[in-house]
User: Which sequence fits this backbone?
C-alpha cells in the first residue's frame, strides 16, 4: 500500500531503541545536549515517584519559546511529566531556562519550526508529534 503524506501512519522510534538510548546513548548525550545547538536537557520531576530526571531532547527556538520534536511520540514519561507539571527547566546553549505551557502542535506547525535538514530527517523517521513551550525567561 502507498501512503500519502497525510495518510502515512505515525510510527515513532521503536521502544527497543528507546530503551537502548535511555541506558546507553542518553548518558553520553547529557554531556553535550546542554550546550549543543538543536538540543537541550529537560529537567523534570516524576509524576508518581517525585524523582528528578534529566532527559536530552531535540529543541528549536521560536518566538516566545521553543518547539520540541517528539521523536518517541507523546506517550513517554518525560512528556507526561512536563505536561502534568505544566512546565520544567531546560538547559539550552549553556543557559538554564524555565519553560511552561506545554501544548501539542500540528505536524505542519512543528515542522515549520525545524531547519530544512532536520525537517528532512524527521520526515524520514516519521516524526509527526511536536510540543510547543513558552519560555518564562524573556532574555532567552
Assistant:
Amino acid at each position: 500500500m502507498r501512503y500519502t503524506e497525510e495518510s502515512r501512519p505515525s510510527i515513532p522510534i521503536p521502544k527497543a531503541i528507546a530503551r537502548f538510548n535511555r541506558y546507553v546513548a542518553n548518558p553520553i548525550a547529557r554531556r553535550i545536549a546542554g550546550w549543543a545547538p538543536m538540543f537541550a536537557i529537560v529537567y523534570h520531576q516524576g509524576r508518581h515517584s517525585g524523582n528528578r530526571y534529566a532527559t536530552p531532547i531535540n529543541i528549536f527556538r521560536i518566538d516566545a519559546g521553543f518547539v520540541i520534536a517528539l521523536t518517541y511520540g507523546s506517550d513517554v514519561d518525560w512528556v507526561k511529566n512536563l505536561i502534568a507539571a505544566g512546565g520544567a527547566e531546560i538547559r539550552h546553549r549553556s543557559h538554564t531556562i524555565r519553560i511552561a505551557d506545554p501544548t501539542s502542535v500540528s505536524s505542519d506547525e512543528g515542522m515549520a519550526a525545524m531547519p530544512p535538514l532536520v525537517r528532512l530527517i524527521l520526515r524520514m523517521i516519521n516524526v509527526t508529534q511536536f510540543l510547543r513551550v513558552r519560555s518564562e525567561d524573556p532574555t532567552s
User: Anything to note?
Assistant: The radius of gyration is 15 Å.
